[in-house]
Amino acid sequence: MRAWEYLIRRLVLLIPFAVLLSILTFTLSRIVPADPAALAAGPFATEEMREALRREFELDKPLPQQYLSYITRLLHGDMGRSIMSRRPVLEDIRRYFPATIELSVFAIVMALALGIPAGMISAQFRDRAPDHAARVFSLVGVSFPNFWLGLMLQLLLAVGLSMLPLGGRFDTGVAPPPHVTGFFLVDSLLARDAGAFIASLKHLILPAFVESVAALATIARMTRSGMIDARKQDFVLTAKASGMPELSILFRHVLRYALTSVLTMTGLFFAWMLGGSILVETIFDWPGLGYYALEATLVLDYEPIMAITLVYGLSCGIVNIAVDILYGVIDPRVRYA
Q: Is 252 left (phi over 0), alpha (psi -120 to 50) or beta?
């Protein structure tokens, strides 16, 4: 099967997945024993005011009718309105999601840029000092919870040494770069504003590092084990016997073999970062989709919760498809089936 045929088939399979996900999120949001209309109306609202809100957001209709209305709106690109802010949910997602994507992409790039070399050094100096140091760091990285690490780094680097900002996405009181993509680093480059780029980068480094630590440690460990295993394979031994230079063997065969397992973990971690960055975004006051999801959950704002869950689910599906496609790039033996 060709790559584009495989891609189309996988994208089509996302449709029933999205339908099942929408049914699940809708059902769970409706069985919660709480009244969002009463929360939105406030403690001093009358029953007439609560009933008016229920009618406005169709909470007074039977559940099948509510779900049919919800799906109809989704097919027309309408994710509903927030019952608390009255803003369209799609507008809020367009506002918050780029911040989460920028944070996640920067974090996974940081994890790969540091984790793969660390794993290579560890494998090259197996059972020696660099290997022991890398393994200790990997163990520490997967052991510490990111919220604790984030708080400690804030106290050390932001409060104690004043090296990096404490939180937020941009300097307080300063206008961010003109909105083009929603990614401050990209928008700063498009505006040719070096000051905005540096300010955005400083705000991004600390939360991205905290987000990347677990992925970095795991990638380093898997690179090490993959390279050690690759050196035992027949194709590597044959390359050595044929007189191929050591560096060529390392990068063309050993590392390429190790990256297949690393790619799997990279996809899993990136999907987790997109959907599981609530703690990091809350600690660093990062205005991303995780922060928005937390606010909506605390007040039981159903429409944003359902929309965010759907966006996260589809994002994870797309990431998994991208990982499967990249398998064929790294390892030509892989066939799309």
A: alpha
| Under 8 Å between Cβ of 279 and 293 | no
**Dist. CA 261–CA 326, nearest whole Å:** 12
Q: How far apart are CA 27 and CA 23, in angstroms?
A: 6
Confidence of residue 171 (pLDDT cuts 50, 70, 90): confident
Of 162, 175, 203, 182, residue with least CA distance to 285: 203
What is the Cα–Cα distance from 115 to 262, expressed in whole angstroms? 10
> What's the longest Cα–Cα distance across the chain?
85
Spatial contact of 210 and 216, defined as CB atoms under 8 Å apart: no
Residue 25 CB coordination number (10 Å)? 20
Domains and CATH numbers, the chain: 3-75 (no CATH), 93-330 (1.10.3720.10)
Query: pLDDT tens digit string along 37-96?
Result: 776 677 777 778 878 878 877 777 888 888 888 888 888 888 888 887 788 999 999 999
Tens digit of pLDDT for each residue in 259-315?
888 888 888 889 888 876 788 998 999 999 988 888 888 878 888 888 888 888 888
SS3 158: helix
What's phi and psi for 81, nearest 5 deg? -120, 145
pTM: 0.85
User: What distance in Å separates the CA atoms of residue 133 and residue 302, rounded to the nearest whole number?
Assistant: 48
Q: How far is CA 289 from the centre of its chain?
A: 10
Distance of CA 53 to the CA centre of its chain: 34
Say how far apart CA 124 and CA 252 lie, in whole Å.
Answer: 15
Amino acid 86: pLDDT: 81
